[in-house]
Amino acid sequence: MIRSHFLNMVIFSWLVAVFFAYLTQSDGKDRIRVILIIGTSMGVISLIVAYVMYPFPLR
Amino acid sequence: MPDDQPGGAAVPGRVPVDPWIPCVLTWLLPGLGHIVLGKRRTGLVFMAVVLITFGLGVASDGAASLIDTRQPLTLLATFDNLAVGPIEVISRYATYGRMVYRLPGEEGDARQAGLTEKVRRRIRSVTYEYGNTFLLTAGLMNMLLILDAFDIATGRKD
I need a surface site. Which of A52, B7, B16, B43 has the fewest CB within 10 A? Predict the structure, then answer.
C-alpha cells in the first residue's frame, strides 16, 4: 500500500495520461507528447491548487 | 474512414466482426476487444493500465459500492464498479468478504449493520480515498474502452 499522497497523485496522473494518449492518438510521437502534457499538467495543477488551499484552516 | 460509412469490414487488414463482440470482450478483460480488432499493442497497454489502476484501488483499501435506495448516487457508483468486468468481484470480496451489490433490509437490520461496519473499517484507512478513486477510475476507463472498441469495430475510428 502506498501511503504517500504525492506518490499516489503522481501514479494516478501518469496512468490517466498513458490511457488518454493511447485512446486519442495513434502515432508514437503524438502519444509521448500527450503523455507528457497530461501527466505534467495534472501534477503541476494539483500542486498549484494545493498551494492556494494551504492557508485555509483544516476545520 | 468518414463517420457516415459504418462497417469495420471495409478497413484493410481487419477481420470483420460483430461490433458487440469486442465490446463484450473488453468488459470481460480490459483491452481484449482491441486485441481482437488487431490493435495488439494498444490493447495490451489498455489492459495493463486498467488492471494496475484496479489493483492499486484494491491494495489501497478502496471499497466497492453498494446500492442504497436512500442514496441514488450509489447506483451510479455500483454501475461504475461493475464496468471494470468480472474482476470486480475481487474488490467486492476484499471489502465485504462475499458477493453483495445491494444494502439489504431496513435501517437497523443486522445484515446492513454488518456491511456498514465493514465499509467503516475501510474508511478509517489512510488510503481509502485513493483506493476509491483508483477503483472508480478503472471502471470509467473501461467504459471508454468499450465505446472505443465499438467505434473501431463499426469503422468510425481507425
Answer: A52
